[in-house]
């Protein structure tokens, strides 16, 4: 957006609008980077306060009904409230019982690990530390465990048209974690960079998509490039990859090709 503000042939009011959109994006960026943590933290304390301090016995069922709706999970989708809440609880439980560190990690006795309890009592302190220093990416990267994924059934799902239901397609922890981290990096948006503002010596805008294993969504690319061409007043192109081959998409003269 800054490149457009500095180089696009904008009228004064257009420059003002685009600058406001850019400022707003910067304002919301930190919140977007901690969505799972924020929603999980709010849900953690909401549940604690309501069940331990605020509710009368006659109100617990109504609260549980509303709370379960917020925590509902659909196959193939990540509910930030649910993931955040359960991961905070998991961290608190692990640090309360001392289920961390070299000794625990190197223990090969399954029974011993299941019964492991050093009564460390460090859980509450730990979640406050995590809340202070992490964002969603480091939160998931550091504290998402294979055991947690198994308990929460955070598998990869696909819809089977033959059975008319979602079915598990992958239980591999590394792939699941990698996919989740990928969706959180840059908020799941593609990395697009300006490569040239005078492409083919015609004053056209050339962009470059840093391909990281996921192709551009053509529908989104078409609409985005149409909007960019309106701002730039000339054709806009983006270099990308499709099936491992270099590809150039262009919006020019009202057409996408």
Task: Write a structural description.
There is one protein chain. The protein has helices at residues 2-7, 12-32, 35-54, 60-70, 80-96, 101-105, 110-114, 123-133, 136-143, 146-152, 173-184, 218-232; strands spanning 156-160, 165-170, 191-199, 204-210, 236-242, 245-252, 255-256. With 257 residues, it is α+β, with helices and mostly antiparallel strands. The protein folds into two domains: 33-183, no CATH class; 190-257, no CATH class. The strands form two sheets. It has a five-stranded mixed beta sheet, with helices on one face. β4, α12 and β5 (236-242) form a beta-alpha-beta unit. The longest helix is centred in the N-terminal third of the chain and has 21 residues, at 12-32.
Helix content: 40-55%
Number of domains: 2
In percent terms, what proportion of residues is strand? 15-25%
Please tally the helical runs, counting DSSP H or I stretches of 4 or more residues: 12
Q: Output the radius of gyration.
A: 24 Å
Q: How many strand elements? A: 7
Computed structural class: alpha+beta
Name a few traits of the molecule.
single chain, alpha+beta, 17% strand
